[in-house]
């Protein structure tokens, strides 16, 4: 480390200039800034479930759909409400990229043998007759209008591949034009559009507040106006460089990667804080910035390098995940941690060594804190009992951990989109339906074969009887309704002429959405669909030859559950293995590596137990926290173990070395843990529930891992547990 110290003190201008130019380049990358909230982009392109979903949408020329919930205190069949809903449907149909708009108001009304076109003028003059027709005869009434006639849905279908954002924005503006009705929108396009605004707020509002809170805690610990912001620079610049890497590589920020800079600041600021706090101590002793730089790098240089590498290894384990956002986070956060570590070793010492920093002793509270932690660490029995309690609790609760990937669960229960979706699902079924393909040996001719049509309708009713399914609709159901409307006869039309009239009523584009040479499209509306019910439906489908394909967002959520679980298990195991191997190589001691891993393992158990006890679930974000836990735990363990080795080589006894290391390390360790936990508390103000969950989990992880490292590790270093000072590994050289 003497060579690095010599380089950074002799060539500070070069280092600072390189960093400044890199910062400028990273800032310019924000011209490429964009957000990606498409759930389907969470999957690899060759995923079979996603491929089936895309295939069906292309095959039947059906794009995404926005479901508009219409509510009124009066009947929606009254004249004013009919006019308002018709006007809304008309406005919606004129929005660019809208393919069709469907609701409970028919395009034509059957009167005797005549089909009368329905428009605003017709409604004004014939509202009562139209209301009776919808209430008693229209074959689509039950699909769009509630039994009490006070709520309805209007389904706005988009063109295949259309950009849903402008459509959702236009619908939001249109809703404001109808104050007499309560209009709410739901569906996957609305989820994506809502998340975009939320993520922008998190990035540009909550992130700066988080940094401000962290700085306040750091100042409370350091009590130095100039050193406090300097401690944050490696992490801040590392996060900025990560943004540059993301944007210049052509990627967008997703629901997960948008908070990557927060994680980089969480990890990276530890390096700057450790350096600055020890520099403050050495400057007070030597009174010379150059000498303080040399002493500080000698003491914490290699621990920072080792902590950087092991933290990178923890995040790098996510690179092999099946989930693309987790994979991207693994890549970008790994790079960001590397940037922060590099800046803490080269840029921060170069900058501080040539600044006029006043020599201020650390506050007395720091010494008292170290003494208190050291005293607590001597109570071996309570600490051991605490570890045993964690192990028992983990064994009991972790098997109960559930996985949830439904995007609606990302939102708070009080959010408008979640409440609207719940009201729609209760009455009409989910706004995110399943879609499928039903096949017949007769091909499209099955429409004209009443026997075959009845068989296929029976298959639909079997599917409809499965738990979690509210309704199943196909072109055959529409034909049944048309037959009842036109002839008054229940059941499938026996007369081919009625079927032909029905096809003519649908029109060419309407038929394309329901039938083609490959089969007949199914629209399945679930309600409260759970993972076990999806499994049963898949089993039923596999045993029913008539239903060839059944997919949709609920199925994709379930598929993502599987990916999250597999990724969690594989990444956690790989991260632990990588970190352990690196600790063995760096510390040159199997026992020391095992000791360093113990706080990490305990913290993982505590975090997963907390998820169950708190009622949280494993999702795309909380699944990533295991890698963060490993990175946090490794940092704290490395700094404490390295400090013990440093003081033992200085000639102190084992107990003295432990006490001195705790006194030196506890301040930056606890400042980092509590400071960054407080900084992450801004996520409690996020409109997304998963970010609130992440903040709560990080509080538990940061606080427990720091205390566990400071209390558990000393148990193995007092007395002759690790060996004599003469045989101490060379981690702190």
Automatic annotation (TrEMBL):
<dbReference type="InterPro" id="IPR050545">
    <property type="entry name" value="Mycobact_MmpL"/>
</dbReference>
<dbReference type="InterPro" id="IPR000731">
    <property type="entry name" value="SSD"/>
</dbReference>
<keyword id="KW-1133">Transmembrane helix</keyword>
<feature type="transmembrane region" description="Helical">
    <location>
        <begin position="12"/>
        <end position="31"/>
    </location>
</feature>
<feature type="transmembrane region" description="Helical">
    <location>
        <begin position="229"/>
        <end position="249"/>
    </location>
</feature>
<feature type="domain" description="SSD">
    <location>
        <begin position="227"/>
        <end position="354"/>
    </location>
</feature>
<dbReference type="Pfam" id="PF03176">
    <property type="entry name" value="MMPL"/>
</dbReference>
<dbReference type="InterPro" id="IPR004869">
    <property type="entry name" value="MMPL_dom"/>
</dbReference>
<feature type="transmembrane region" description="Helical">
    <location>
        <begin position="381"/>
        <end position="399"/>
    </location>
</feature>
<keyword id="KW-1003">Cell membrane</keyword>
<keyword id="KW-0812">Transmembrane</keyword>
<dbReference type="GO" id="GO:0005886">
    <property type="term" value="C:plasma membrane"/>
</dbReference>
<feature type="transmembrane region" description="Helical">
    <location>
        <begin position="669"/>
        <end position="690"/>
    </location>
</feature>
<feature type="transmembrane region" description="Helical">
    <location>
        <begin position="331"/>
        <end position="352"/>
    </location>
</feature>
<feature type="transmembrane region" description="Helical">
    <location>
        <begin position="592"/>
        <end position="613"/>
    </location>
</feature>
<feature type="transmembrane region" description="Helical">
    <location>
        <begin position="255"/>
        <end position="276"/>
    </location>
</feature>
<feature type="transmembrane region" description="Helical">
    <location>
        <begin position="297"/>
        <end position="319"/>
    </location>
</feature>
<keyword id="KW-0472">Membrane</keyword>
<feature type="transmembrane region" description="Helical">
    <location>
        <begin position="563"/>
        <end position="585"/>
    </location>
</feature>
<feature type="transmembrane region" description="Helical">
    <location>
        <begin position="198"/>
        <end position="222"/>
    </location>
</feature>
<protein>
    <submittedName>
        <fullName>MMPL family transporter</fullName>
    </submittedName>
</protein>
<feature type="transmembrane region" description="Helical">
    <location>
        <begin position="696"/>
        <end position="717"/>
    </location>
</feature>
<feature type="transmembrane region" description="Helical">
    <location>
        <begin position="625"/>
        <end position="648"/>
    </location>
</feature>
